[in-house]
What does this fold into?
Amino acid sequence: QVRMEESGGGPVQAGGSLRISCTATGVTPCFYDMSWYRQSPGNEREFVSSIHPDGTTTYADSVKGRFTISQGNAKNKMSLQMVSLKDEDTAMYYCKISGRTCVFEYWGQGTQVTVSS
It folds into this structure.
């Protein structure tokens, strides 16, 4: 079965940096997107960033220029490097994989990022 593991979350000062990671195991060999979403209490879950099978990336306007998504040589691993963190970046960050040539979608349990001034 598919297992999603997220790590790297924690407290950080405003203006600081943090790197969170996600590893998916047990995924059927095929092409899929890997994405980050985030959600804070009282708000809807929002898209943060994705990396696609061809290596291209997508970012929400709110994080462009500050966050960088990357994928390891093992395509089931990805990281989100976050710099110049702001109070509004505080949220639970969720990893998602979604199949392209195969049909599936899996979510991790999330890792908490808390930015304080």
